[in-house]
From TrEMBL:
Keywords: Amino-acid biosynthesis, Cytoplasm, One-carbon metabolism, Pyridoxal phosphate, Transferase
The name this protein goes by in its record: Serine hydroxymethyltransferase
Record has Transcription as a keyword: no
Serine hydroxymethyltransferase-like domain location: 10-385
Gene3D superfamilies: Aspartate Aminotransferase, domain 1 (3.90.1150.10), Type I PLP-dependent aspartate aminotransferase-like (Major domain) (3.40.640.10)
CDD domains documented for this protein: SHMT
Listed Pfam families: SHMT (PF00464)
A Gene Ontology cellular-component term: cytosol
Cellular localization per UniProt: Cytoplasm
Domain of life: Bacteria
Binding-site list for (6S)-5,6,7,8-tetrahydrofolate: L122, G126, H127, L128, E245
Site positions per UniProt: Plays an important role in substrate specificity: H230
Cofactor (UniProt): pyridoxal 5'-phosphate
Length: 421
């Protein structure tokens, strides 16, 4: 394949231009199964590289600390209006630099250092910023954690309620980074009300599915919604906070001046483009196809003897425990990478291995669905994973190389959005 034209970059910094070209080829030729990755459109890429990069815009539209904001204010207002329309929320802030700073803003808005906060345990599928010990959120706040049942891999809401009423957290997070099942926002909301807590739905992974009607929305239930704008939403690397109007002032003040200076205006513009794309009928079809592909892939993996946490998936994500295969997750992930099947190694609930050398791998279907692959391709994907895991365990590099050739052949028939064919 040819790389995208970057003449100015190639002239100014050929070494960096070569690396960009290599990444373009890698993204085009491999099967990307990282659950948190996707392909953005050329329109999103172009918006992220505009002269909006040149502007400083501390503050909010109509209330800036710099002049010359005539166009920037309109860009941000457009992104905010599109977020509110798409998700049906009363308030949206599109300035957070990423998902972790967005979650930090929630703490700044609603808690004081030392307060108790509650979230899903990281090894059970939660996120670092939900009060985990090695995160600032677990250092500055007292984190208490819920998990999933050993027998089902699902959240035990009786246990969550008992913990919440005992600990009385200021904030309860629901959502995470390795949650393959539908999040019951209503159940979490009922517990949060009883405990007197602010409920925050971290939907970074499933925002695109929610926008496309392929996952229930937290809007009727959560006080605050935090999300990244990439992953299933297919936007740039940014974030948003959405809420009821009653929390708007506290959240806006926490983002700026609480945590950040000037917003990244080029990212705000790219978010606006992605939200416009997500409002189209074709995006709804995409979101449902992501789920259909994940379910078909899970079924094909189960047929090949893989152990899936919770027994399958309701969304875009599959979490696999490779213990029965007797291949550690890290070895499997690195072997699959050499085979052109890109995944990440991941802890599984009640994992006996260490986080940097865990028992599982995490896979997802957003990127392959963006390329146009459908349920009819999922048996082949499952077969590559099956063969790749076995080859990785056996150290069979010839078998991994054979898979890579097969993967590249299929990828050539399904060009990635935003990349040249």
């Amino acid at each position: 394949m040819s790389t995208l034209p970057h003449p100015a970059l190639a002239a100014a910094d050929p070494e960096l231009a070569a690396l960009v070209g290599a990444e373009e080829r890698l993204q085009a030729e491999t099967l990307r199964l990282i659950a948190s990755e996707n392909y953005v459109s050329r329109a999103v890429l172009e918006a992220a590289g505009t002269v909006l990069q040149n502007k400083y815009s501390e503050g909010y539209p109509g209330r800036r600390y710099y002049e010359g904001q005539q166009n920037i204010d309109q860009v941000e207002r457009l992104a905010v209006a599109r977020a509110k329309d798409l998700f049906g929320v009363e308030h949206a802030n599109v300035q957070p630099y990423s998902g972790s700073p967005a979650n930090l803003a929630v703490y700044l808005a609603f808690a004081e250092p030392g307060d108790t906060v509650m979230g899903m345990s990281l090894p059970m599928g939660g996120h670092l910023t939900h009060g985990w010990g090695v995160s600032a959120t677990g250092t500055w706040f007292r984190g208490v954690r819920y998990g999933v049942r050993r027998d089902t891999g699902l959240v035990d809401f009786d246990e969550v309620r008992e913990l919440a009423l005992k600990e009385r957290p200021k904030i309860i997070f629901c959502g995470g980074t390795a949650v393959p099942r539908t999040i019951d926002f209503a159940a979490f909301a009922e517990i949060a009300r009883e405990a007197g807590a602010i409920l925050v739905a971290d939907v970074a992974h499933i925002a695109g599915l929610i926008a496309g009607g392929a996952h229930p929305s937290p809007v009727p239930h959560a006080d605050v919604i935090s999300t990244t704008t990439h992953k299933t939403l297919r936007g740039p690397r940014g974030a948003m906070l959405m809420s009821r109007e009653t929390h708007a002032k506290a959240l806006d003040k926490a983002v700026f001046p609480g945590l950040q200076g000037g917003p990244h205006n080029q990212t705000t513009a790219a978010i606006a483009v992605a939200l416009h794309e997500a409002a189209q009928p074709s995006f709804r079809s995409y979101a449902h196809a992501v789920v259909a592909n994940a379910r078909a892939l899970a079924e094909a993996l189960l047929e090949r003897g893989f152990d899936l946490v919770s027994g399958g998936t309701d969304n875009h994500l599959i979490l696999m425990d490779l213990t029965p295969k007797e291949v550690p997750g890290k070895i499997a992930a690195k072997g699959l990478d050499r085979a052109g099947v890109v995944v990440n190694y991941n802890t599984v609930p009640y994992d006996a291995r260490k986080p940097f050398d865990p028992s599982g791998i995490r896979i997802g279907t957003p990127a392959l669905t963006s390329r146009g692959l459908g349920v009819e391709h999922m048996p082949a994907v499952a077969d590559w994973i099956d063969r790749g895991v076995r080859a990785a365990g056996a150290g069979d590099e010839d078998a991994l190389a054979a898979i890579r050739r097969e993967v590249a052949e299929l990828m050539a028939a399904y060009p990635a959005p935003g990349l040249p064919g």
